[in-house]
Structures are given as C-alpha cells and as structure tokens.
Task: inverse folding
C-alpha cells in the first residue's frame, strides 16, 4: 500500500488548480450575484479549458478525453470542485460516461458534440413523485409501431436548459421482483426541439448559483426506436454500469471546496488578533482547525481508496457510498466551522465561505441522500448475515 | 537547432518561507517545491521557438537532488523533448553553487552541442543571478541577459533587454546564452494529454562525476535570518498632521 501521487497525478493537480484559480475564480463573484452564467463567458472559458486539455478529460483517449485512471480523475475533480459549480461544470464539462454506452451512431450524434463543447448532455430521472425511489417513477414510454411515445414529467434536471438533448429514463413496463412489483425502465435519447418535449425553467434554490435545474415535460413525445440507449427495459442496468463513479465525483468536488474553506479559516486564524493574540492560539479555534483537517483527511482517504479500488475492480457500492456520505457531511461541517472562525465576516460575500456553506447543503441530497448512502452501506453489511 | 534549457527546483513562490532555528538556512522539509518561475518562462520561450519551426529539439537539464526529476517532468509535460538530471546532492537543503552549475552545464553543452541556451535570469531561492553569465564566460559564447523579447534571425539572436530605465536591443551571434526576465512571455499550463505523454519522454540520470566536475561548495553561509519585523505605525489625527509628519519627520515632501 502506498499513498504517494505519481508525477502525472501531481502535474494534473497543478494544471487543474492553476486553471481554476486563474480562469474560474475571477468570475465567481459575478455569477453568485447575478445567478447567471453568460454564454460568451462559457465560450471563452471552454476554449481555454480545451487548450489546457481539461475539457472532458474524464473521457477515454479514443474519444478525445485525457484517458485518466479513476484516481487521477478524482484528483482533477477535487481541484475543479473548488470553484463555483456552474463555472466548472459548464466551462470544463465532463460529459456523462453513459454516452459511451451508445451505439457508434449514437456516439457520433451525441458524444462527439459534447466532446467538442458544442453542446451538453443531461440526465432525466427524478420526478416530483419519484426521488430516492426511482423505480416508483410514473413517466412512461409505450411502443407504437417501431416508435416510442413518451409521457410524463421530470424535475430537478440539472442544466437541461443548455443541454442539446436529454437521456430520459422512462417506465416501460412492470415486473415481479423479490421486493414486490417494480417498474421496468428504459433509457432514451430525446433531442431538444422534439415535438411534445418541453424544457421549463426550474426552481430557484439555495445552492450552486448559476447552475440551473429544469422541469421536463413529455406530452405524447414520439421518438424513433434508434433513440433507445442500451436495451429496452435495461435502463437501470445501463446506468448502473456506466454511471458507477458519480458518487465519487460528488465526494471529490466536496473535498476541493472543503480544502478551500479550511485554507481561508487557517489563514484567518493566523492573522486575526483578538484579546492580544492570534485567534488560532485560543483552544476553541485551534481545536476546530484540527477537527476540520482531520475530517477532511478522513474523507479524502475514503475517496481515494474507493477510486483506487474502482480501477482494481474491487470497489463495492458501500465503498463509494461511504466516500460520498463522509465527504458531503464533512463539507457541511468544515464550511460551517470556517464561518464560525471568521465570525460575521464569514457570512459576507466578500469571501467564498457563505456560498460554500450554501452549496454544501445540496451535496447531502443529490446523487443519493445521506440516508440512501447509509442504507446502501448497512445493506451491504447485513446481507452476508441474511439481512 | 537544439536548445538547452536549465531548470531549477526551488521552494514554491506561494510558500511562506521559514528560517531554520539554527540559522543555517531555510527549512525545506515537507515544503511545496516547484520549477523556478523564470525557468518556466525559459521553457515556454523554447517551446514557442519550436512551434515557430526555429528549434528542432528542446533538452531540459536540472542539477540538484533526485527529486528535481519532478521539475524535469513538468518541463517535459510543457513541451520539452527530453531531460537530463544531474544528481549532485542528497539533502534538499544543499544548494549547488552557480559556478558548479555553470561548469556542469558547460560539460552538458560539450556533449549536446546546442545552438542556444535559454535560462531563467535567476532562481527565486538564492537570487544569485550568476549562472548564465558564468556559463557564457566558460563557453566563450555571447550572452544576452534579462530578455523581454527574443527573436532568432539566421545566425543571430535579437534580444530586447530590460535595463535600468528602459529597454536595450542587442544582436548576438549564436551559439549564445540568453537569460530571461519576467515579461518575456506567460508560460502555458502543462495540458492533461501532454502530462500523460511526458511519462514516455526520456529522462537521463547523471552525476557530476560523469562530467568530471567538483561541486564542493566554495561559499560559506554565515547566517540566515528573517527580515526584521516591521515597526508599528502611528495614527494621525488629521490630514494636516499627516502632511506635517511627512514633511518634517519623514522628509518625503
């Protein structure tokens, strides 16, 4: 077992960090204030990200990505995660790995434009009535001749406003399972502009300003059979196989933001003087710093280990759930304490702390709530005992 | 034409430097180290010359501890073609002095026969600003220091130098030693695909003995100390009082 970064990993971190600090940080305040990421800025930063080879670097080399191993990819995600989410996700996009599951024609039509930065993908699963219980979804697709006809509503669909297409998960039947009757799910590519497919503005929310969510409505939306991604009724299998490490991606971006918050807290604790000394010398502040650093390191080790095991082929669902659970809860604690150490100044938008604190709230909810992660972990513990 | 670019591993410019308690130097244990920023500019300039078709090969050289291979990997990831590491010290606190570095570089030049050496004007750790000049003396080549612009025209290099109070443009016959200043260019990021490719580029490891050079220090460090802490300021009650103080006490008005 060894914990040293390779030369390549060190340089990936350095390049990504330098890019984030030089190119993304200067635009954060504006986006936090307006809640809007202008397309001209997106185009300018996309070009710079492409020149640095950072754009879509999560993808394999043969489709134009950087061909990073999972651990290197997570190190890159951590650095990107430092910045405002809309900025790094949109301008240094990481197209969903599920696009690799497509047929050669589907890759050409959907993956290639995403790699070139001409468009973005989005995934539509969540519904008003189906959050954690995805297989309880009601949006459906029925076959009509060789076509499929889609009906229903999806919401909380991230960045659907700029995406050129969506990958919609729809119920296409029911089956008996050991845990009762469940929906069969199929994944479909639906192009923006398809008749019967509407993208409506979503909700305003507390986290990730500038990063939009949308409501998607399907009203007798007719699409051809070639738009099925993977096999009919096997939508969750496709998602399970290709979306595997998204929980680790969330964990890694949390690490970056926590690291940034901790760095602010640390330098403030060393600079700020009250009652005649650095506030960091008061045990009440010093111990907070110690706890923050320890929690951050614990979350990092869980994330890196899960990433390493992912490539070794030995990762379990619980490994990834633990990393996501720990990193997102750690971030909430670190962001909160960083503000506490700063006092009133921590709440002002002069510093990135108030937004890191707001953004942290989302991380315990998306990609599976903390409760779902705990369910996954405990289920894996109890199963061998007949649980 | 082949270009030689010497690069030094130095304490990262963002790190708050701490003097060792015994005053023998700066504490470098577990401190972030990076390529000397002026050397990054030198690497960038070499790459631009290669992109312009003036240069065919870029060889990066580093002299120091074994860990300097990280610095060389960065140079390779930026775009250098191959690298030579001369391991001249075991302890990260050992600084190889400019004369020893210049002698080693002279030996590398004899073996590699480059048409141009592009180096940083100085390293940000000891600020010697000597290696390039010493190397010019040892090789008998022309030197152009503090470059803010570099153009290669046939047998000559046109170099704009940042001198006191302005700019000076000189024409030197190549082979030559050019040392670069801050405003020459803005170094690129080592792009992710190039980082992955750098792994496959050759990095040769040598020792000073291979070149018959003695790197024993000739300088003795007597003491290293922190800059004196700034004295506390005074608060003035009014603009008039400030002006009086600036006139009578500070003597700047």
Result:
């Amino acid at each position: 077992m060894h914990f040293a970064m390779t030369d390549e990993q060190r340089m990936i971190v350095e390049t990504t960090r330098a890019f984030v600090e030089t190119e993304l940080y200067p635009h954060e305040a504006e986006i936090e204030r307006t809640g809007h990421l202008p397309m001209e800025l997106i185009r300018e930063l996309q070009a710079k990200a492409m020149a640095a080879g950072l754009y879509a670097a999560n993808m394999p080399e043969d489709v134009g990505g950087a061909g990073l191993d999972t651990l290197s990819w997570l190190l890159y995600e951590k650095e990107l995660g430092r910045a405002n989410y809309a900025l790094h996700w949109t301008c240094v996009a990481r197209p969903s790995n599920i696009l690799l599951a497509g047929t050669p024609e589907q890759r050409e039509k959907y993956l290639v434009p995403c790699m070139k930065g001409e468009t973005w993908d989005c995934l539509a699963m969540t519904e008003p009535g189906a959050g954690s219980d995805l297989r309880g979804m009601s949006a459906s697709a029925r076959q009509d001749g060789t076509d499929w006809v889609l009906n229903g509503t999806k919401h909380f669909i991230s960045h659907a406003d700029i995406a050129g297409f969506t990958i919609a998960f729809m119920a296409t039947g029911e089956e008996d399972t050991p845990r009762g009757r469940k929906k069969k799910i199929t994944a479909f590519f639906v192009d923006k502009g398809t008749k019967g497919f509407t993208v409506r503005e979503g909700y305003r929310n507390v986290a990730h300003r500038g990063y939009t969510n949308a409501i998607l409505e399907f009203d007798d939306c007719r699409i051809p059979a070639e738009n099925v991604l993977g096999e009919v009724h096997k939508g969750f299998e496709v998602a399970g196989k290709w979306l595997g490490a998204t929980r680790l991606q969330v964990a890694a971006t949390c690490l970056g933001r926590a690291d940034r918050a901790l760095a602010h807290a640390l330098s403030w604790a060393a600079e700020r003087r009250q009652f005649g000394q650095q506030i960091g010398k008061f045990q009440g502040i010093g111990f907070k710093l110690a706890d923050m650093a320890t929690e951050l390191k614990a979350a990092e080790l869980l994330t890196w280990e899960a990433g390493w095991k992912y490539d070794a082929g030995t990762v379990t669902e619980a490994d990834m759930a633990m990393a996501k659970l720990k990193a997102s809860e750690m971030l909430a604690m670190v962001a909160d304490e960083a503000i506490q150490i700063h006092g009133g100044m921590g709440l002002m938008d002069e510093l990135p702390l108030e937004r890191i604190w707001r953004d942290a709230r989302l991380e315990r909810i998306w990609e599976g709530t903390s409760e779902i992660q705990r369910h996954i972990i405990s289920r894996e513990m109890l199963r061998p005992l007949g649980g | 034409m082949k270009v030689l670019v010497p690069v030094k591993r130095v304490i990262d410019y963002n790190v708050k430097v701490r003097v060792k308690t015994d005053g023998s130097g700066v504490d470098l244990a577990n401190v972030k180290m990076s390529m000397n920023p002026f050397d990054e500019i030198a690497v960038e300039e070499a790459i631009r010359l290669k992109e312009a078709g003036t240069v065919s090969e870029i060889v990066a050289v580093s002299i120091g501890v074994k860990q300097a291979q990280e610095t060389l990997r960065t140079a390779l990831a930026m775009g250098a073609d191959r690298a030579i590491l001369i391991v001249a010290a075991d302890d990260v606190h050992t600084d190889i002095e400019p004369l020893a570095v210049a002698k080693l570089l002279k030996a590398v030049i004899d073996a590699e026969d480059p048409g141009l050496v592009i180096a940083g004007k100085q390293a940000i750790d000891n600020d010697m600003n000597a290696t390039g000049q010493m190397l010019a003396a040892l090789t008998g080549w022309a030197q152009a220091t503090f470059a803010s612009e570099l153009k290669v025209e046939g047998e000559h290099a046109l170099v704009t130098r940042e001198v006191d109070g302005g700019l000076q443009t000189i024409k030197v016959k190549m082979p030559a030693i050019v040392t670069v200043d801050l405003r020459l260019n803005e170094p690129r990021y080592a792009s992710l695909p190039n980082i992955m490719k750098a792994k496959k580029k050759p990095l040769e490891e040598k020792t000073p003995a291979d070149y018959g050079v003695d790197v024993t220090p000739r300088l003795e460090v007597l003491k290293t100390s922190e800059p004196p802490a700034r004295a506390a300021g005074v608060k003035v009650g009014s603009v008039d009082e400030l002006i009086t103080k600036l006139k009578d006490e500070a003597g700047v008005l």
Notes: The CA atoms of residues 136 and 225 of chain B lie 32 Å apart. Residues 2-249 of chain B form a domain with the Rossmann fold fold (CATH 3.40.50.620). The first strand of chain B starts at residue 2 and ends at 6.
